[in-house]
């Protein structure tokens, strides 16, 4: 459970950095995300999940 909480904490830190450092640009980026078709967002999400899975696999091995 400790490891899981550390991982979630690290994800939150990494995800929060752009919002803290570049709030104006993040607003523009979020607006662009809202304009993207759902299919493109699904593909992007899938690619990110597969990439994350590969990174976890490489990190464990």
Would you mind describing this structure in some detail?
The longest helix has 23 residues, at 38-60. The chain has 3 helices and no strands. The protein starts with a helix and ends with a helix. It is flat, with a radius of gyration of 15 Å. The chain has one domain (2-60). The protein is 92% helix and 0% strand. With 61 residues, it is an all-alpha fold. Helix 1 crosses helix 2 (23-35).
Please summarize the sheet with the most strands: none
Shape call: flat
Distance between the termini: 20 Å
Cα gyration radius (Å): 15 Å
Q: In short, what is this structure?
A:
By secondary structure, the protein is mainly alpha-helical. The chain contains 3 helices and no strands.
Q: How do the helices and strands line up, and which of them pair or pack?
A:
Layout: H1 2-21, H2 23-35, H3 38-60
